[in-house]
Amino acid sequence: MLRVGLTGEMGSGKSTVARLLAEHGAVVLSSDEMGRTMMQPGQPVYAAIVASFGPGVVQPDGSLDRRELARLAFDPAHPRVEELNAIVHPAVIGEQARQIEGLQRTNPNALVVVESALIFSARDGATPWRDRFDAIVLVTAPEAVKIARFVRRSSAGRDLTPAERAMLEADARARLAKQAITPEQRAHCLVLENSGALPSLEARVNELWLTLQSLGNQKL
Ligand SMILES: CC(C)(COP(=O)(O)OP(=O)(O)OC[C@H]1O[C@@H](n2cnc3c(N)ncnc32)[C@H](O)[C@@H]1O)[C@@H](O)C(=O)NCCC(=O)NCCS
Ligand SMILES: Nc1ncnc2c1ncn2[C@@H]1O[C@H](COP(=O)(O)OP(=O)(O)OP(=O)(O)O)[C@@H](O)[C@H]1O
């Protein structure tokens, strides 16, 4: 088994790369999706978030108000993202470890890809990222492209007022600031640049797949 961490800042194209790797046969675990599942009513993570952040983050139907939670988490005057991370990240990392352990038994030759913007910074308090992954792939794109992709996704095709656009851009910058990757971390990564058109990304992913295959079960 090869355990690959797939990272890159928001809007860099990680999910697109994950999808392409899955088409080659990789087993992909998405941290964002796992986090969302654990934040559903009835889950321990949901209860811990409501206990910390209060009833103001609960919508009338009982689900979490993600927009309000994001506002509190990334509030520039009083950010609480570390508090939120301390609840969600250990649970997500623990679930990933359990799923990878299961795959070791059922599919020992699997190439497992864990997708997360926070591969280097997310902690469960115990296991350093070096012990959780055999190789890290970093997807990069220019800052302006990443912000534009976030604004486009968040507005879902709606026309934005200049004030709404400015708010979304500020939200994007606040999230990106929490994802910055240091040159020391980058030096550990296989870097995939994604500033061009999709076919050139696809060609790079084809090469990446061959490189990962050639690693076998070796740590990079
Ligand atoms: C703040 C929340 C409620 C915002 O929800 P929203 O639906 O707007 O965003 P979504 O979860 O789809 O994330 C979109 C992107 O935001 C960025 N982002 C999310 N959480 C964080 C964080 N803690 N730090 C930095 N960037 C983040 C990531 O690039 C992510 O891909 C949510 O992202 C959250 O609970 N974050 C904390 C837990 C977390 O880190 N989740 C992501 C991986 S487990
Ligand atoms: N090379 C490309 N050309 C055109 N569009 C692209 C390219 N790469 C990615 N995209 C588009 O940009 C958007 C963001 O890409 P993607 O969701 O893969 O990024 P991400 O890094 O996973 O972002 P996030 O962390 O926000 O989930 C998507 O709509 C995707 O289809």
Question: Could you characterize the architecture of this molecule?
Answer:
With 220 residues, this protein is of the alpha/beta class. The chain has one domain (2-215): P-loop containing nucleotide triphosphate hydrolases (Rossmann fold). It has helices spanning 14-24, 31-38, 44-53, 66-73, 81-106, 129-132, 143-155, 162-177, 183-186, 198-215, and strands spanning 2-7, 27-30, 111-115, 135-140, 189-193. A five-stranded parallel beta sheet has the order 2-3-1-4-5. Helix 3 (44-53) packs antiparallel against helix 5 and helix 7 crosses helix 8 (162-177). It starts with a strand and ends in a 5-residue tail after the last helix. Bound molecules: dephospho coenzyme A (COD) and adenosine-5'-triphosphate. Catalyzes the phosphorylation of the 3'-hydroxyl group of dephosphocoenzyme A to form coenzyme A.
What is this structure's SSE topology?
Layout: E1 2-7, H1 14-24, E2 27-30, H2 31-38, H3 44-53, H4 66-73, H5 81-106, E3 111-115, H6 129-132, E4 135-140, H7 143-155, H8 162-177, H9 183-186, E5 189-193, H10 198-215
Parallel strand pairs: 1-3, 1-4, 2-3, 4-5
Helix pairs in contact: 1-10, 2-5, 3-5, 7-8
Binding site for ATP: 11-16
InterPro entries: Depp_CoAkinase, P-loop_NTPase
GO molecular function: ATP binding; dephospho-CoA kinase activity
